[in-house]
Every structure is written in C-alpha cells, then in structure tokens.
Protein: VOC domain-containing protein
Organism: Linum trigynum
Amino acid sequence: MAQPEIHNGGAEKAEVVVSFTAVKPQLVVEAPKASEAVQFYKEAFGAVETGRTTHPKRKAEQELPQIISAQLQLAGSTILVSDLADDSAPVKGVGSGLSLCLETQDVEAAVAKAVAAGAVAEGEIAESDGACCGGRVGKVKDPYGFVWMICSPSAAAKCGDAGVEA
Amino acid sequence: MAQPEIHNGGAEKAEVVVSFTAVKPQLVVEAPKASEAVQFYKEAFGAVETGRTTHPKRKAEQELPQIISAQLQLAGSTILVSDLADDSAPVKGVGSGLSLCLETQDVEAAVAKAVAAGAVAEGEIAESDGACCGGRVGKVKDPYGFVWMICSPSAAAKCGDAGVEA
C-alpha cells in the first residue's frame, strides 16, 4: 500500500507508470495577437473562453496585456492560446507554433519516461506562471519534432479564476 | 420544426450555427515513420491505439503500409498520427506538422463560417479516405498560421473498424 501507484499491469514490468489527465493543444501566437486570435476562434468555431491568465508585470508601453494562457472550450476539448513573449516565457525557447500540453500529477516521472522512450528534454522543469495551465512544466521534443509541454494540473484553477473576457 | 438546427440564440443574429463534436490533434510525420511514432506515443505517454486506417493500394516496394490515420486515446482525447504521402494525401498539400481536426456534421457551413471570420480555405472540400477520420474534409488556415481540418464524423467508425495493431 506504500508502493507507488500502479496501473495496467505495470507491476510485472516494473516500469514507471504515469497517468495523464488532459491533453490541451496550445496555440502560441506572436504577441500581442493572442487576444485577437481568441476572438477569431470564438467567431470561426464558436469556442467559449473559460479563463485567461495575463502577465501581471507588463511593459508600460504595451497596449495589450500579455496573455500567458487563454483557455477555450471547443467541442469538449480545451484549447490554449498564448502570446509568445521572448522575455517572460515560463519555459524559455518555447517558440511559436502548436504544441500539446499534457497534464499529469508527476511531471518529473512523465518527462523521464518520455526521454527514456526517445524524446529530448528541452530546458529544466520549471515553475510556470500559467502558460500551460500548470504549476510545473517540463518541455520535451519527440523524435518526430512535436513539442509536448508536460505540466502539473495544480494551477488549472488559476486559469479559471483569472479575469475572463466574455 | 422544419428550421435548421439553432443553438445559443443564433436565431436573433441569423448567423450560421455550426456544432463541432470533437477536436483531434493530428500529427503528420514523414512516411513511413507513423508506425514508429505510434509506438513511441504508447511507450512515452501510455497512449492506446484504438484504430488504424492504412492505404489499400500501396507501392510494391514499400516495406510498411502507409498509415492514413492511426487513432490513439490519450488522457480522454483522441490524437491522430498519419504518414505524410505526397501522392495520395486525401487533401493535397496538407504538409507535415501538427494540425487540428474539427469534426462537424456540416463541413461546408463550418468552412464558410471560418472563412467569413478570416481563415483562408486551402483547396476544395473533398472526400477523404480517412486522414482526418472524416467522410469529407475541408482545410482552412487561420490568420495565425494554424491549420484546421474540418471533417464530417461519418467515417470515424472506419478508423475503429480498421485493423488495429495492439
């Protein structure tokens, strides 16, 4: 009973078992277009915004607050839209584009397992301020070039609690 | 009662209302690496393959059948993995990379609405042989560079019915 969580016959193989609770495509757009992009996804696809986390310390000259993560509901899935910010990205070097956020309780084990399977960890596992809706985020690139942000779901509520622009 | 389906107060605005039933990230990899990629996602993330559609007419010299679409379940979402094939892509010019499949009953209306909101349609709406698990597929690129494959869900069962490699 003091053993780590084991699923799907993991005991026989003595392998690390990691459970994921959600997959969220994250669309990273050139700042400050995330707000405009959110509006587009509402109009084009009927997405519903359920939360938005913005950067508290933004440059005075910026017209729009930097969107760390806007959370949209679309066809039963969650889509995240973020501004790409070179100086304040929670995990440096995320780059613009489409990545996949994978939520898990055990970020370290999940990253280690992905790396053991052939992915390449990029950067350190770090505290996030919400880009992937997670408390801690690790980034891995898989052998096919796709980027997975492995994050803890603890801060998911933060997205929901943040100012919602309806 | 003979009126078209109306949701969310669409009647007042007389706008086209389109419902989406699923969002599925589609990972398109250089052929013939899709099979290897599926194996990777199983090992790295514990994804479970629930269906695979392969091309019936493949080149004799090819060692592996072209994977039109392998359907994986991961954390309650469906992820599609496909081989990029220049000569047999159901929608030409899909390109490798990560796109988002959006399932709807009304592909034409969904594409038209996305275009009206600012997306650019790429190519014609065409019958698919399963790349996006759809009967018909239209491709649009949104103003932020992301590609959405808008497809009918009618052929979703096809993926499940196809040979499953466990």
In short: DSSP finds four helices and eight strands in chain B.
